[in-house]
Structure formats: C-alpha cells, structure tokens
Amino acid sequence: MKKSKSFLSLALTSMLAAVVIAGCGTGNQTATGQAPAPSAGDKKTLVMATSADYKPYEYHDLSSGKDEIVGFDIDIAKYIAKELGYELQINDMNFDGLIPALQTKRADFVMAGMTATPERAKNADFSTIYYDAKNTIVAKKDSNLTKPEQLAGKKVAVQLGSIQEGAAKELAKTVSGLQITSLNKLPEIVEEVKAGRVDAAIIEDTVAKGFVESNDSLQFTTLEENEQNGSAVAFPKGSPHVEKFNEVIKKMQDNGEMDKLIQKWFGQ
C-alpha cells in the first residue's frame, strides 16, 4: 500500500509538472519546438506621427463618409511598411509636437513634409530626401506681394515649427519691419490671409497650389532659394529603421513607384 501511494504520488507530481511546463510556454511554438512562420496577424506595428493639415502630403479626407488620413506621405509610408513587413499606425498631432514625439518614444518615425534642418538633426535622425519642394508667398491677388522685399512692414503667417517659419525668420533679418505670426494649422493660416488679418503667408509650393486652386482671391509666387528644402523621414536618434527606410526609398525611386506617387498627388 505504501509503495502504491508512492507510485501514485510520483505520477501526480509528473502530471502537475507537465501542466506547469505547458503553461509557461510562449504559445507560439509548434509540436516540433519550432516557432511558426508569422502570419498577417503577427505583424509588428510601426507608429507614424504626422500633422494631417498639409495637403497633399497628409490631410483628413471625409469624401467616403468616414474620416481617413490620406496623402503623398501616407502612400509612401504604407508602401515602406508593407515592404518591411509591418502594420502602420498613424497618429495626428500639431507639427511642433512631432520631434518631441520621437524624443519621448511615442512614434517610430515622422513623415510630414519635413525638412532635415541642422537644428532638427540635433534631436532626430533623417532618411535621404524623398521629395524636393520650394517655398512660396501666398497673398491676395490685389496685394502686389510677390517678392521678399515687398514684405517689409507686413504681417506674415507661417506654420509653427515648420521650415517656413525658419525661412521667415531669416527674411526678417534683411526685410525691415517684417512681422511673423506663427500658427498651428495651415487652413487657419490661409483663413488669416483671406480675412486680411495677415498680409501674406509663406507656404510650400505644392501645398500652396492646392489652397490657391480652391480660393480664387489668392495667388502664390515661388521664392528663389539656394538651399534645398527636400522632405525626409525623421526618426528617434539611433533608430534601427533609418537604413531600411533608405533602402525602400531608393527602390521606389528606381522602380518608378515614387514618380507615380508624385504624379498622383502633385500632377507633375
């Protein structure tokens, strides 16, 4: 009887151990001990931060009856994520909060028509340039504001934290009396110009084109600049994603995909 109890005790102990071991597993292993190939539901997620008020780069589209963020940057980001085997999550925020979002690890990367300035490069790493653009003066058609020197003594609106804000500050060093008004959203900036509360705005050419086409009272004039204002992807310092993103961007430029998207969103 004692021997039977010992055998029974041993059997129960072995069964309990097997249950405990099984419960400690990852749940991702096959019967052979090999991890199964990842399925679509196992994809990791890349978090993209943007400021979705920058048509045609990124903006809210309500035409389908639901609020969807679409645009040039969005299409590029989706293509890159798919190539690298990631799902994509897009978070919309104010432009001046994008770099801080990278610094606090609330985003894996930023795409927002952003230029890799030396100042930004102190706090973020950047991809290669994927699209180059120029700045413009946006003003009323009857304003006769088409040249930088004509902005003397005028109020000029720019987006807070943007490359255009930096350009306006540089202009203010040589253009007497130029007053800068920095605002969060581009539609708000355009409304300020239309209402006459500011005399003009400095906006990127591809974005300015869209606003002017939908507002007959406005015009834009391209500024001649020596520096390149190309858009690049921003990452947290030391991000492991930079090299892989660069590889896909080059692939898109080589296989014609980037040209297709440029034509789709900018018509050029």
Which structural class matches the secondary elements?
alpha/beta
Uncertain regions: pLDDT < 50 for 5+ in a row?
Answer: 1-41
Helix-strand sequence: HEEEEHEHEHEEEHEHEHEEHH
Briefly note the CATH topology name of the largest domain.
D-Maltodextrin-Binding Protein, domain 2
Looking at the overall shape, the CATH architecture of the largest domain is 3-Layer(aba) Sandwich
How do the strands line up in the largest sheet? 10-9-11-8-12
Determine the mean pLDDT: 85
Q: CATH superfamily of the largest domain, please?
A: Periplasmic binding protein-like II
Q: Tell me the distance between the termini.
A: 91 Å
- What percentage of amino acids are in beta strands? 15-25%
CATH class of the largest domain: Alpha Beta
Question: Whole-number radius of gyration?
Answer: 27 Å
| Total count of helical runs of at least 4 residues | 9
Report the count of strand segments.
13
How would the global form be characterised? Answer: globular
Q: Share of helix among residues? A: 25-40%
Give the domain tally: 2
Largest sheet: 5 strands, mixed
GO molecular function: ligand-gated monoatomic ion channel activity
Pfam family, one: SBP_bac_3
Protein name: ABC transporter substrate-binding protein
Subcellular location: Cell envelope
